[in-house]
Prior knowledge:
Family: Belongs to the binding-protein-dependent transport system permease family.
Oligomer: single chain
Protein name: Peptide/nickel transport system permease protein
Keywords: Cell membrane, Membrane, Transmembrane, Transmembrane helix, Transport
CATH superfamily: MetI-like
Main location: membrane
GO biological process, one term: transmembrane transport
Radius of gyration: 26 Å
Amino acid sequence: MTAVEMLREVPVAVDPRGGAPRRPARWREVLGAALRRPGLVLSVLVLLLVLGWAFAPSWFTSGDPYTGVPRDKLTPPGAQYWFGTDHLGRDLYTRVVYGASLSLKATAIAVAVGFVVGTLVGLVSGFVGGRFDGVVMRLVDVLLSIPGLLLSLAVVTALGFGTVNVAIAVGVASVASFARVMRADVFRARTEVFVEAATVSGVGRAEILVRHVLPHALGSVLVLAALEFGGAILAVSALSFLGFGAPPPEPEWGALVSEGRNYLASAWWLTTLPGFVVAASVLAANRISRALDRDGGDRW
């Protein structure tokens, strides 16, 4: 049998109404990709839910996070109160939903501070090189040698209490990580052919830095920003738990966990459920950042 005859024997799915062979529907491809990576899909849904809480809390609850019903204090989770109530009768679910705005606001500021400052430091240091790079990297090494939470505590003590100050403190603690990653990518970008060609062509150093090196070196830093988002949620909640965040009765996630410490024996939900929300948000952000990493994307 010739090759042509063999091809004729292969069955082809044809549209019963006539025309070209059928192709699988686009929605089936999307569904198949989702089924192959259920963890990523779940993480995206969790993060979208938390972002919805932050930007439109009234869509998810009609309650008041600051007003309670005294007769319903310390009510366990149920149909009326999904997360139960606290010692003042306030709906814990409502407070968690409204607390997402404060916690994610601080997280976004923290990541932005670390990303902008760290990227600039690593970009300039890696591109200039020489003694300047040596001095800057020794300072970065000093920052890396200090535990992040301890450094954040020192900064927020100097700045004062409050959500914004907590966010700045967490952002300062992450500057060194961004600077290290950016510097490494800048060193790799400097050896690329197109950068050397631009240098030989007489293009200015500032233009080479902005138009050629920065876009080429930005990918890994963006992935790190996604990863730091989860870590920043945890750090902001930890500082809020210690009392450095917004003052009561603001429903920051860390403060909600802290408020329930005195009721662990009689009202476990006051600490467990807000803590679960924090953990789920951190894990979802970390999972998405792993998917964004091109080197590990196929494994996840």
